[in-house]
């Protein structure tokens, strides 16, 4: 099975908010609110259940969204203020872009979601689609992990995510270094049965992401190692990268 734009939501929407809190929402929304300033028009790609968008609206930022999954949009709509955000359900990497009314001053794509696009071509197209919707000098901010393949042996890895007397959650993954693909299966062995939640990702290191950005007309403006503006260095586990349209 290949992941389409709505696959993640179909598999995860049911318990997304309970199980997918990165623990950085306060820092990241404060960072973006300061960067953008009130009154700017901002596009969030893969807006999901509104984890970032709803607090940003509260801070005076005008947000619109693109989201591949109706199920994720339903979660956002059910929250206070969720119905006031303009959202287009569609693929952020669609070959013909998206229709949502722009132009925007800024766009962002966080929580490793660039890697949910499982080919290099789709990731480049995502940058191009954003560029087409931004004002000159507009910015595009990306947050992803820095790939760390040190736990893989023979292109495989298996880890225990959670464990108690009555259950265990495992993560099994295989790595294809040629496609830069991680094919994962989150295996939850529970008292009432086994639940499988697959995930596919195409990872990229920061220099490749910079090149994708350049192909779409952006230059790297700043890069941090975290939402508290930590310096980015070889020990950084993640990066927050800000690109500016030329
Ligand atoms: C890890 S969640 C992040 C959601 C939200 N941005 C956040 O930070 O909580 C990934 C989101 O990307 C969406 N998504 C995955 N592929 C997509 C695509 N090709 N186009 C648009 N949205 C996509 C999923 O439906 C999901 O809502």
Task: Throw out a few tags for this protein.
24% helix; 11 strands; seven-stranded mixed sheet; globular; 35% strand; 246 residues; binds S-adenosylmethionine; Rossmann fold; 7 helices; N-terminal domain of TfIIb; alpha/beta
Q: Could you describe the 3D structure shown?
A:
- The structure is a single chain.
- The protein has 246 residues and is of the alpha/beta class.
- The chain folds into two domains: 7-146 and 203-245, Vaccinia Virus protein VP39 (Rossmann fold), CATH 3.40.50.150; 156-200, N-terminal domain of TfIIb, CATH 2.20.25.570.
- Helices cover 24% and strands 35% of the residues.
- The chain is built from seven helices and eleven strands.
- The chain has helices at residues 7-12, 16-19, 25-36, 53-58, 70-77, 120-131, 206-215, and strands at 41-45, 62-67, 86-89, 104-109, 134-145, 156-163, 168-176, 181-190, 193-202, 218-224, 238-245.
- A seven-stranded mixed β-sheet has the order 3-2-1-4-5-11-10, sandwiched between helices. The protein has a four-stranded antiparallel β-sheet with strand order 6-7-8-9.
- It is globular and about 55 Å long.
- The relative contact order is 0.14.
- The mean pLDDT is 97.
- The site of S-adenosylmethionine (SAM) has 21 residues, from helix 1 and strand 2.
- S-adenosylmethionine is lined by residues 5, 8-9, 46-48, 51-52, 66-69, 72, 91-93, 110-111, 113, 116-117.
């Amino acid at each position: 099975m290949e992941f389409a734009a709505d696959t993640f939501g179909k598999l995860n929407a049911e318990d997304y908010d309970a199980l997918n809190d990165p623990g950085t929402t306060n820092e990241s929304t404060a960072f973006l609110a300061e960067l953008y300033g009130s009154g700017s028009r901002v596009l969030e790609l893969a807006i999901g259940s509104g984890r970032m968008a709803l607090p940003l609206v509260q801070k005076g930022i005008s947000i619109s969204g693109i989201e591949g999954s109706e199920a994720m949009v339903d979660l956002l709509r059910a929250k206070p203020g969720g119905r006031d955000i303009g959202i287009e359900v569609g693929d952020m990497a669609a070959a013909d872009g998206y229709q949502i009314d722009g132009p925007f001053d800024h766009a962002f794509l966080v929580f490793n979601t660039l890697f949910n696009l499982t080919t290099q071509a789709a990731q480049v197209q995502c940058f191009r689609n954003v560029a087409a919707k931004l004002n000159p000098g507009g910015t595009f901010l990306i947050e992803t992990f820095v790939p760390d393949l040190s736990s893989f042996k023979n292109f495989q890895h298996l880890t225990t995510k959670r464990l108690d007397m009555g259950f265990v959650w495992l993560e099994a993954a295989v790595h294809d270094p040629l496609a830069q693909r991680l094919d994962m299966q989150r295996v939850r062995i529970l008292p009432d049965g086994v639940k499988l939640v697959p995930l596919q990702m195409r990872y990229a290191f920061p220099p490749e992401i910079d090149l994708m950005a350049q192909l779409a007309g952006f230059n790297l403006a700043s890069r941090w190692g975290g939402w508290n503006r930590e310096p980015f260095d070889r020990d950084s586990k993640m990066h927050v990268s800000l690109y500016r349209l030329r």
